[in-house]
Amino acid sequence: MKQQIPSPQDALDAPRLPSGLRMTRYLIIGAGPAGLQLGYFLKEKGADYLVLEASDGPGAFFRQFPRHRRLISLNKVHVTGDDPEWRLRWDWNSLLNDSLLFPAFSSEYFPHADDLVRYLADFQREHELNVRFHTRVDRITKHNDLFAVVSGDRTYHAECVIIATGWGGPNIPQIEGIELAEGYEDMPLDGSRFTGRRVLILGKGNAAFETAQALLGHAAVIHLASPRPLKLAWHTKHPGDVRGQYGALLDSYWFKTLHGVLECEIDRLRRDGDVIKAEITYTLADGERAELEYDAVLRCTGFTMDGSVFAEECAPRRHPNGRIPELRPDWQSVNVDGLYFAGTLMQGRDLKRASSAFIDGFRYNLRTMARLLTERYDAAPLEGNQVSTDPGPLTQTILDRLNHSSALWTQFEYLVDVYVPENGGLTLYQELPEDYAIERFGDRCLTAGLHWGPRDIPDVFAIPRHPVPERAHESAFIHPVIRSWRGGELTGEQHLLEDLSARWRDQLRHVEPLQAFLSATPW
Q1: CB atoms near residue 126 (< 10 Å)
Q2: Which end of the chain, N or C, is less packed with Cβ atoms under 10 Å?
Q3: What pLDDT digit, counting tens, does each position of 74-113 carry?
Q4: Element (H, E) at 435
Q5: For residue 427, what are the β-bridge partners?
Q6: Helical H runs in 68-150?
Q7: pLDDT digits (tens, 9 = 90+) for 2-18
Q8: Which residues pair with 495 in a beta bridge?
Q9: 206 φ, ψ to 5°?
C-alpha cells in the first residue's frame, strides 16, 4: 500500500471537540524510556503532547525487572574518541538528548537496574517533560477519528494515541498444571531456598538463564526446557537471545554436572506428594516421552502486551506470535488508524533482527516516529538534505554517514538512509525503516545501511574470510550494503568489505567499489 503523504490541509481538517472539551494532539500512554524519549522529541518540535503514567515515577517496569537486577544492555564507558555520536554505539541505555547520558549514573559494563530507574527520573525532570503520574488508563475508545482515554473519572481526548507501556504481564503457556509453577514476576530471589532441590525452569531466554545462574550454587539439578533449541546471541547477532554472560549453566551442562537444557514439550505438570511430576515429549528424539520429578518449577516464559484497555472498535490486531501488536511500516496499528506503538512493542517490524525491543534501538525509531507524526498531524515537512548526484561526492556522503551514524549501526538491517531523486536533485532522508522507505520512495531511490553476514555459520569463532572487494557480499561481520530500487523492486546491491574497527574508508576496499556502483546506477 502506497504511503499517503499528508498535506497542510489535513492538519486543518483534524477532528474537533465540542466547545469546552480539551483535546491533546498526541497522547502517550506510559512514562518508561519509550514514553519519555518520544515526549522529548515531540517537545523539541513544539508539539501538543501529554504522557500518562500509572505509577508515581518513570520506569516502573525496571523497578521490578530484571528480577536479579542486572541489565543485559551494555554500558561501554571507555571507547576510543570523544565523538558523542560514535560513543552512543556502545551506550545502550542513554536516551537521545544533549545533556544527560547514562554513563554519568553508572560505569558498570552490565549496570544495575536501579541506576536506570534513577536516570529515567532525572531525564524527566531535566527536560521538564509533560508527564501526568498516578494516572492509570482504564479504557481506550475511538469514535469519529477521535480517541477517548478514560482514567478514573476523567477522560482525555486525542487525535493520536501512542502506546508506550511496554510489557503488560507474563506470557503464560497453555500447559495443564501450569499453576504449579512460580512465575518469574514473583519468584523468590534467594537461591538458598532451592538448596539441594531439583528445579525445572520453563523457558530458555535470558530470564530463564538469569534465574538459573542464581541457582547454580544451590540447586542439585537445574533443567531448562522449551520445545525449540536454545538461541545464543553470538550466533543470531540478536541481543534478545541468550547472552554470553550466562555461559556458566551451559558449561555445567557439558561438564556433566546433571544440569541440563531440554528440547521438549511440557505436556502436563501434576503434584504427587512433595514433588511435581512433569510429563514431557522430547522434540528432537523421535517423539520420546518421559516423566521427570522436580521439587520446584519456575516459569520464565517471557511477557506479553496488555490489550484489556482497548474497546472493540480500536482493539489492535496482534502479531502472529500473539504477544505484540501487528504494525504498519510507520509503527501504526495495521487495523486502527492513529494508534501507534513505541518502545519494545514496536519490535514487530524487525523482530529478532535489529534492536527495536531495547532502548539502544527504539530510541532511534522514536526520533524517526516523531518526524513522521508531526508530518502527518502538524503538516511539518519531512526533513531532507540536498546532496550531490555526482558519484564522487555522493560516495563521500554515503560513507560519512555509515561511518558516523549510531542509528545505522544499532538498527542494522532495519533503519537506512534513503537517497531520492526529486526536484532535479537528490534528497537524503536519514534513518527511515527500509520497508517504509521502499513503500514511500521505492519508485526510484537508493538505500544505505549496515548488515551482518550469514547467520548459519557453523562456528562463529572460526570464520574463513575473503578480504577482496569482489567477495564483500560474503563478509560475516557488520558491513555496509547499498541498494538501488525502482518501482518497489530491488535493481542493484553493493556490499562493502567488513572492517575490524568499523571504519569503511579504504580507497580500494570501500571508496572505489561504491563509486563504481553509483556510476552504474541510473538515476
Answers
A1: 12
A2: N
A3: 999 999 888 999 999 999 999 999 999 999 999 999 999 9
A4: helix 434-441
A5: 386, 420
A6: 84-87, 113-126
A7: 555 555 445 545 555 55
A8: 481
A9: -65, -35
